[in-house]
Amino acid sequence: MKIAIVCYPTFGGSGVVATELGIALAKLNHDVHFITYKQPVRLNLLNPNIHFHEVNVPTYPLFHYQPYELALSSKLVDTIKKFEIDVLHVHYAIPHAYAGYMAKKMLKEEGIHIPMVTTLHGTDITLVGNHPFYKPAVTFSINNSDIVTSVSESLKEDTLRLFDIKKDIEVVPNFIDVSQRKTSFTDCQRELMATPEERIVTHISNLRAVKRISDVIDIFYNIQKEMPAKLLMVGEGPEREPAEQKCKELGIEEKVIFFGNSNEIDKILCFSDLFLLPSERESFGLAALEAMVNKVPVISSNTGGIPEVNKQGVSGYLSDIGDVKEMSENAIKILEDDLRLENFKAKAYKEAERFDVNQIVPKYIALYEGALAIS
Ligand code: GMT
């Protein structure tokens, strides 16, 4: 099949999933065309089945806001025609489903039918899409997609609750290439980060308010009072500066390393002992899954789709949003005992296997085939 994928190219779960999906499809000999404004961060083009088409938005002084949707839908029309694309798969409703719908309509005028699969990722529904300024357009583009998927049961429920949806929503969970992680690192070089007696605690996100970065720091503060420990903070975002300030005020700045954005997530997780994800909201929690596949147990909130990924008392522990006390106690419980930690690590990995690429990608392929059959 020839598949066009539209996604955000930046660090962020939806772009990562879309990129990994494209890579997996290319390995299965499908022809994959990424269409976005920048080469996705996790995409390397070393596969003859992977193509990247950049959307350029020419600036013009009359425009206060440059019309990205317009440029994207035009690029979609051109690319779909030129490469005879069979299926269009857009990740994140705003504005991708909207632009995809416009492209569909323009192509229809020329007698070309292109089925569109829309994958909802989370904030496009719960945070941004739900805003009254966007809601009618988001509802319209979901209802006019040929197939709609969501990354968790929880997100499906949220979508049906928040929008007037007339379409079925198929849950296709996010996934991870388990075999790739197995072979990536034989030596984690842990000694670069910490002394043998120190525990390594990690948080990875776009450091936005929804991630409750202040809770991450508080939990770590409680951990390091009980045992030698380091906190690795990976990612960039508006909460970074306040977090650095908070670490200074608490006198733990020597124990906390802020990495910024990194393409070496697996390497960092390879030497981590515990992952913290106390988010206010999370449709799935891909970062938690990435931790688990690297044998890192997870202390998280019990919000949204996280309970579908992190299993209570198995791959880690879940607590109510903001319950820093319980999260700290559970973190310490896992970290203070070598045997218990090893046990949690093994089980975290086992749970991650449920989301292996080989289990999930065939579901998308079946949906594409279904969409093609309808036309
Ligand atoms: O977490 C973010 O803020 C990034 C966001 C995105 O769209 O890239 O992540 C969302 O999609 C991910 C991939 O499906 C999910 O794993 C995240 O849970 C979801 N984030 C939220 O719902 C806040």
Describe the structure.
The chain folds into two domains: 2-175 and 356-374, Rossmann fold (3-Layer(aba) Sandwich), CATH 3.40.50.2000; 178-355, 3-Layer(aba) Sandwich (Rossmann fold), CATH 3.40.50. It starts with a strand and ends with a helix. The strands form two sheets. A seven-stranded parallel beta sheet has the order 3-2-1-4-5-6-7, sandwiched between helices. A six-stranded parallel beta sheet has the order 10-9-8-11-12-13, with helices on both faces. 43% of the residues lie in helices and 17% in strands. It contains 15 helices and 13 strands. It has helices at 13-27, 68-82, 96-109, 123-126, 135-143, 153-162, 178-184, 213-226, 240-250, 265-270, 286-293, 306-309, 324-335, 338-352, 357-374, and strands spanning 2-6, 31-36, 50-54, 87-91, 116-120, 147-150, 169-171, 199-204, 229-234, 256-260, 274-277, 298-301, 316-319. With 375 residues, the protein is of the alpha/beta class. α12 links the parallel β12 (298-301) and β13 (316-319). α11 (286-293) crosses α14. The structure holds ligand GMT. Ligand GMT binds at residues 12-15, 17, 92, 121-123, 151, 174, 206, 208, 210, 281-286.
CATH topology of the largest domain: Rossmann fold
User: What compounds are bound to the protein?
Assistant: ligand GMT
Instruction: Report the CATH superfamily of the largest domain.
Output: Glycogen Phosphorylase B
Count structural domains.
Answer: 2
Separation of the first and last Cα atoms: 15 Å
Mean pLDDT: 94
| Helical coverage, percent range | 40-55%
Number of helices: 15
- CATH classification class of the largest domain: Alpha Beta
Question: What does the radius of gyration come to?
Answer: 21 Å
